[in-house]
Protein: PEBP-like protein
Amino acid sequence: MRSSTLVALLSLLSSTAFAAFTGDTSLAAVKAAFDDYDLPSDLDITFDPTVLFEVTFPGPVYVHAGVQLTTTETTPEPSFGIRLPLNGVTGPFVVIAVDPDAPAGVAEVRHIVAGDYTLGSADANNVEPLTTTTTPCSAWVNPQPPAGDPAHRYTFLLFKQSAGFDSQTVLQCQSTASPIGFNVSSFAQATGLGNPIGGTFMLVAASS
Ligand SMILES: *[C@@H]1O[C@H](CO)[C@@H](O)[C@H](O)[C@H]1NC(C)=O
Structure:
């Protein structure tokens, strides 16, 4: 971890007293954390977020970039949102989560691919919920990192939905096929999603 990570983390912590108990609150800190954890290069994506993507597990357990969470905390499907300001983005949106840290030939593991998310009204924390009534193309798969592995970087990305996304045939939806061997970069390119507009990630290791 480079020293800029520490600076980013310190500025994140000091930016608000409750930062550790919410999602991300700074676009610069999220971008710095992605860079420090080599996610843009490992996922082969350009990550220049314009919105703060909220990922929250029941509890609530808030994801912020680089947070360490347990397999138990991250078992149920998370909910999603965007922290204001929206900076001009409108829906619908696509959510994709991947694990780039499975062994070669297995990574990336796909943890969710779901579309047609639209924004609701802001809650008391200035977060507009993202909800969809469309069955996910690839349903939530909870983190199950192998015992002994260093924590895996489970990465959530938010995309502006492309016009033809609902009829894409790159990935067979609702299939029982194993979620291994996915490639978010080539998928986003092939389905016209382009670069993510938001993202965050969590570190999860097997419980000891
Ligand atoms: C994913 O696809 C890109 C091309 O879009 C390629 O450069 C990259 O190596 C692939 N990643 C993996 C893990 O296969």
